[in-house]
Specification:
It is built from 17 helices and no strands. By secondary structure, the chain is mostly helical.
Length: about 475
């Protein structure tokens, strides 16, 4: 069930109506409704994988209690590693088995040994990377005595499977979400309206920006050998805005939907394309994943406490793991490696915490220095996205080689529809810039007179229907 589908347009109001009008006096019934709705939402993708989700929930719910009950350190560690091993084992089988098998066979062939790799003919359970990381963070936090284990199965299940975040995040923390699930919630008109506003903006990002950019990105990437260098640059830019509009659009819809039920989820995007260096970019892009790797991998490895060698080593580990988390393909690993490479200079020069505040805060335009830094960071990001989008490494290098050719100086091959989409992207970029100090770009639209605000809402809705093409799944569903 896609957020941008008619099915969801019927599903959400029904759950909302039952939640606030039938079960508003009973928190346990509200939570039970959220659980049933979440299981139904997930089963709409493939009901068979619902059993895998429930198994993962049961595993971590049980091991969390076992860790808390254990009095000996060895027993606590046993339950911790049992949960980690099974969770990562399941993720490995479904997501990485074929990659390792094929890579091993290719490695043997390079030394003259020919073998047929054994592969599994299974589809990837949607959202497995996200709910696995939910469970792992919970178990580790219980083991580290950061939280008490949850003993209400329904409450814990809602934490893992809450339908707005189930299939593509944000990756929530038990310390943030569990207290909200356990606390009685009251309907807030202001919060609900703010949620609807964020949903509208998320749908605009997905349907108008991402899906239309996807058409041209796919056309150019899939036929990259036929296009000039200048057109290949446009293809990379189309994908850059496709993935941002797609994933941040999903996050906006997820956060807005959660607000309708009185729940605040973690912010996952904070205007990353206005970053002034790669370190700032990763504090603003997929924030929940970046902070997860920082807290559960980078810091346990020693973080930044050691010398430069340890900082470099740990940085490359988390970025390569981040790339590998995204998919079982060498392109993702190289994408992670490139981002680590880009961020190393700022770590060594100790400037990685220089750009903490919002760029040009309180100003209409950035300084020349900020503008130069934004353009440089954006260019490096676009370069890395080519590897993320390419079907394999050969395609990525071929694509980049095509860009840096004499045809780079020619006029791009783009039809009228493509020019219109570029214009929409430019307008979108301006709106994001003007709204960069808000929780989301149109968060502060209420400062305008009501007729102006409603005119903007109407314009966004009109664009949604005018530029709605074929219904497309969100990119991060495959991860």
């Amino acid at each position: 069930m896609l957020f941008n589908s008619l099915n969801f347009a019927f599903f959400l109001p029904v759950v909302f109506f039952l939640y606030w009008f039938f079960f508003k006096r009973s928190l346990p019934l509200q939570n039970l409704l959220l659980l049933v709705a979440s299981y139904f939402f997930y089963a709409c993708w493939d009901w068979r994988f619902l059993f895998l989700l429930v198994f993962s929930i049961l595993l971590d719910f049980t091991t969390g209690i076992k860790i808390a009950q254990a009095t000996r350190p060895g027993v606590r560690k046993f339950w911790l590693w049992l949960s980690i091993s099974i969770n990562l084992g399941l993720l490995g089988v479904f997501k990485y088995f074929n990659f390792f098998s094929t890579s091993f066979a290719e490695g043997l062939s390079d030394i003259g040994l020919q073998v047929n790799p054994m592969t599994l003919n299974v589809i990837l359970p949607i959202g497995i990377s996200f709910y696995t990381f939910h469970g792992l963070s919970y178990i580790i936090d219980v083991y580290k005595n950061r939280i008490e284990p949850e003993r209400n199965f329904v409450v814990y299940s809602v934490f893992v499977s809450f339908f707005p975040l189930l299939v593509a995040g944000p990756i929530e923390r038990a310390t943030h979400l569990l207290p909200q699930i356990k606390k009685k919630r009251k309907f807030s008109y202001t919060q609900a309206v703010d949620g609807l506003r964020q949903i509208l903006w998320g749908l605009f990002k997905k349907v108008v920006i991402a899906d239309n950019c996807a058409y041209f990105a796919n056309m150019i990437f899939n036929n990259s050998g036929d296009y000039s260098g200048s057109t290949l640059v446009l293809g990379a830019l189309f994908f850059t805005f496709q993935i941002y509009g797609d994933f941040s659009g999903y996050s906006d819809i997820a956060l807005g939907t959660a607000k309708l039920f009185g729940i605040e989820l973690l912010k996952n995007f904070n205007y990353p394309y206005f970053s002034r260096d790669i370190a700032e970019f990763w504090r603003r892009w997929h924030i929940s994943l970046s902070s997860w790797f920082k807290d559960y991998v980078y810091i346990p490895l020693g973080g930044s406490k050691g010398g430069n060698w340890m900082k470099i080593r740990n940085t490359f580990i988390i970025f390569i793991l981040s790339g590998f988390w995204h998919g079982a393909n060498w392109t993702f690993i190289v994408w992670g490696f490139l981002n680590a490479l880009f961020i190393i200079p700022s770590i060594l020069l100790k400037t990685n915490r220089s750009n903490i505040d919002i760029v040009a805060k309180g100003k209409l335009l950035p300084s020349l220095r900020d503008l130069f830094q934004i353009i440089l960071t954006f260019s490096l990001t676009v370069l890395a996205w080519i590897f993320f989008r390419a079907k394999d490494l050969h395609h990525a290098f071929q694509y980049i080689g095509g860009i840096f050719s004499p045809s780079l100086l020619t006029t791009p091959e783009l039809n009228r529809a493509g020019v219109i989409i570029l214009l929409l992207v430019f307008i979108f970029f301006i709106i994001e810039w003007l709204g960069r100090e808000g929780h989301f770009a149109i968060n502060h639209i209420t400062i305008f007179p009501r007729p102006v605000s409603w005119a903007i809402y109407f314009a966004l809705i009109l664009l949604l229907f005018s530029f709605q093409g074929e219904e497309q799944a969100f990119i991060y569903f495959q991860f």
